[in-house]
UniProtKB/TrEMBL annotation:
<protein>
    <submittedName>
        <fullName>Sigma factor SigB regulation protein RsbQ</fullName>
    </submittedName>
</protein>
<dbReference type="Pfam" id="PF12697">
    <property type="entry name" value="Abhydrolase_6"/>
</dbReference>
<feature type="domain" description="AB hydrolase-1">
    <location>
        <begin position="21"/>
        <end position="260"/>
    </location>
</feature>
<dbReference type="InterPro" id="IPR029058">
    <property type="entry name" value="AB_hydrolase_fold"/>
</dbReference>
<dbReference type="InterPro" id="IPR000073">
    <property type="entry name" value="AB_hydrolase_1"/>
</dbReference>
<comment type="similarity">
    <text>Belongs to the AB hydrolase superfamily.</text>
</comment>
Length: 268
């Protein structure tokens, strides 16, 4: 069973035997996006990296169109992975959509988790005028993105990558993200985008029982500060830390700040 999970998710393990830190990547990315941060913890933790099904070097044959149409399916993958490797007291570090995937996994199997670190999380990307919720996007924005994914592979990557990385990101990192978007299987990537950007997991936040750190970038076009404030207000036992940086990927653009925040969270 562990070998099946290792093959399915292209799992990489380094460092000590215990305690484990599991790093989960965002939409359109893979585990290489943690390369500036994860090695800093190998001397003190068992560092586990993996690719979501359909991303990176995961086994595409295990993609299930029905199960992976919702974030709960990806959370089920995470639970299966933790069970297969028998990981306990996990510090789960999830970026962007993986933050919510980690939230759902922790609700399903709280006994496996010691802490959640949620980097740029969002329980709902769409604005909801009826409740006053600000997610940052209108439905027309997401529909336009999905339509562009169908008709213009390079165009949607050129549009989304700069917004994700932020205006101060080195061009080499923005180009890397564009390449990552374009390298993913188009069908799976489109469905993952819909699961990510059209989902609504706000009702799940009060169900979290694991201590959580919400790591928010001060200037983030994908998950604005209003989202971090909302999550902090609705997640019991959560802490909110705002990094005074731009962009949605501080682990790439500001790795030392991210490492420092993670170390403080683990120590705390």
């Amino acid at each position: 069973m562990p070998q099946d999970a290792i093959r399915r998710h292209h799992i990489t393990q380094r460092g000590q035997d215990h305690p484990p830190m599991v790093f989960a990547h965002g939409f359109g990315c893979d585990q290489q996006m943690w390369r500036f941060v994860a090695p800093a913890f190998e001397a003190t933790h068992r560092v586990v990296l993996f690719d979501h099904i359909g991303c990176g070097k995961s086994d595409l044959s295990t993609y299930d169109a029905e199960r992976h149409s919702r974030l709960e399916g990806y959370a089920q993958d995470v639970v299966t992975l933790l069970d297969a490797l028998d990981l306990r007291d996990v510090v789960f570090v999830g970026h962007s959509v993986s933050a919510m995937i980690g939230v759902l996994a922790s609700i399903a199997r709280p006994e496996r988790f010691a802490q959640l670190v949620l980097v740029g999380p969002s329980p709902r990307y769409l604005n909801d005028p009826a409740t006053g919720y600000v997610g940052g996007f209108e439905r027309s924005d997401i529909d336009g993105l999905v339509d562009m994914m169908d008709s213009n592979l390079l165009g949607w990557a050129d549009f989304l990558a700069p917004a994700v990385m932020g205006p101060d990101s080195p061009p080499v990192l923005t180009d890397e993200l564009k390449s990552s978007f374009c390298a993913a299987d188009p069908y799976i990537n489109r469905r993952f985008a819909m699961a990510t950007f059209l989902g609504d997991n706000r009702a799940d936040l009060p169900r979290v029982t694991v201590p959580s750190l919400i790591l928010q970038c001060a200037h983030d076009a994908i998950a604005p500060c209003a989202v971090g404030d909302y999550m902090h207000a609705h997640m019991p036992g959560s802490r909110l830390q705002v990094l005074d940086v731009s962009g949605h990927c501080p682990h790439l653009t500001h790795p030392q700040l991210t490492i420092d925040a993670l170390r403080a969270a683990v120590a705390g």
